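User: Watch each token:
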Amino acid sequence: MESRVVAVALSPTHSFSKALQAEIRLIAGMGVEGDAHMGETVKHRSRVAQDPTQPNLRQVHLVHAELLDELQAGGFAVGPGTIGENVTTRDIDLLGLPRGALLRLGPDAVVEVTGLRNPCIQLDHYQKGLTSATLDRDADGNLIRKAGVMGIVKAGGVVRPEDRIRVVLPTGPHQALERV
């Protein structure tokens, strides 16, 4: 199977869901043009309150469509963009990528994976029970965060639904993703 972009979305405000778009433009070092989370420093309100000078490791939010399929099967009314992601993917194990993996989206854009999205109470404000549905435990009892990955834009470009995704793994020992 070839990994691909299913949908792209953005929101100019700090609303929870993002509106689907025909395309989005990624800006190197900044994020998604026109999105409330674009910038070199943190834009998520809770992080701005802690320290507004922190680097923005959450410029782009990616979610695998397989999670949306799982949530829909569990009775949740979700679709691309509804849980706040900018890029919905298919046929790529986002959660299994190491920190520093590069995702080449379409012909030009490159996103470096920085970590896992930490599911928060906003998911429950959208639909009751959604936060716990995006969390799981492995065989050893360790917490699994399933709500997608975050990244920074290394090379800008336009990203559209049906664009191919190519993964470039970092050299050296791979570091597992942690929440960012």
